[in-house]
Amino acid sequence: MADTKRIGSLDVFPLSLGGNVFGWTADQDASYAVLDAYRAAGGNFVDTADGYSAWVPGNHGGESETIIGEWMAARHAREEMVVATKVGAHPERKGLAPANIHAACDDSLRRLRTDRIDLYYTHFDDESVPVEDIVGAMDELKRAGKVREIAVSNISPERLEASLAASDREGLAKYVAIQPHYNLVHRDEYEGRKLELAQRHGLACVPYYALASGFLTGKYRPGQNVESPRAQGAGKYLGTERGDRVLAALDEIAADRNVPVATVALAWLAGRPTVAAPLASARSVEQLPALLGAAELALTAEEADRLTEASA
Predict the structure, then answer these.
(1) 301-310 vs 241-257: helix axis angle to the nearest 10?
(2) Which of 48, 53, 75, 144 is deepest in the core (most CB within 10 A)?
(3) Which residues face 121 on adjacent strands?
(4) What does the alpha-carbon distance between residue 170 and residue 106 come to, in Å, rounded to a whole number?
């Protein structure tokens, strides 16, 4: 069993299961199967958002939360799961005005069929709202017992620093985690001011796009056509100098270790400063072992350095 990681007061499995595919590329049965397999492997850290999957024709947003909530009820699994969701992107609850945060939280609680959210993120920053008002609303949710810990996803370093300062200054609940776009071929956005702030304030990092829309699974290669809704996202890395270097290094290490390429990419990310649990999704049970393997694979310093250099 993989050792758990700490995010605030929460003990989490070192690979967070992304729920963005639930209600999108995975229907209810497929979603349940993935959740069952993740739980059976010792996983307890599921990530979703109120806006998932509003982009699917006929959906309204909240489908992923609903599937997770119904699965937890059917499996009597709520007490063992750490559930993370996000506020601000549901079509009917956009933005981070305090009243909207409160209403969106109540909506998420109903869909998740629970009385508390373990880790509640602001999904996208809303610069029309002062950081004091956003943190103040999140603090109220925590004091009310509706939220156990608060966190932040897409935000500028300046607004993040101001938010953390407001919490310290006013005695409000403080972010314990950050969910940035971060992986082997997308490092600059997090490595810098955001990483410095995370280190200084003790924020755990839960990176999204940990596999670069599937590029870091190794299944996307020049001249190959892969049927996937994410193919376009992965395609932007194909044939680039950095992408080629990274794939070559991943291929070598994966072959040496006899593990999938995705496992190595996630293991590199898991070993980076502040990272508690990379975030990755699986639309089928067959995709899950490569993700779960990262919780057990410890790269050598030489292997990690080789990947770090290749991705520079």
Answers:
(1) 160
(2) 48
(3) 86, 151
(4) 25
**What torsion, rounded to 10 degrees, do the Cα atoms 101, 45, 268, 186 define?**
-20
Which pTM was predicted? 0.96
Which of 15-19, 28-32, 207-211, 233-237 is the least confident region?
Answer: 233-237
For the chain, the residue count is 312
Reduced to 3 states (helix: H, G, I; strand: E, B; else coil), residue 95 is coil
Q: What are phi and psi of 155, to 5 degrees?
A: -160, 150
Query: Active-site positions?
Result: 52
E strand or H helix that includes residue 204: strand 204-205
CA distances from 230 to 24, 236, 283, 292, 309 (A): 12, 11, 12, 21, 26
Q: Do 98 and 92 form a contact (C-beta atoms < 8 A)?
A: no
Q: Which two tokens stand for residue 208?
A: 């999204």
To 5 degrees, how large is the angle CA 65–CA 66–CA 69?
A: 85
CATH architecture under which domain 5-215+261-299 falls:
Alpha-Beta Barrel (3.20)
Q: For residue 188, is pLDDT > 70?
A: yes
Residue carrying structure tokens 């909506």: 107
Q: At 200, give phi and psi (nearest 5°).
A: -70, -35
Own/partner contacts of 4-9, CB < 8 Å, gap of 24 or more, are: 4/44, 5/204, 5/276, 5/277, 6/204, 6/276, 7/119, 7/149, 7/151, 7/176, 7/177, 7/204, 7/206, 7/276, 7/277, 8/119, 8/148, 8/149, 8/176, 8/177, 8/204, 9/148, 9/149, 9/176
Whole-angstrom distance, CA of residue 288 vs CA of residue 282 = 6
CB of 150 within 8 A of CB of 179?
Answer: no
Q: What is the pLDDT of residues 239-254, one digit of tens each?
A: 899 999 999 999 999 9
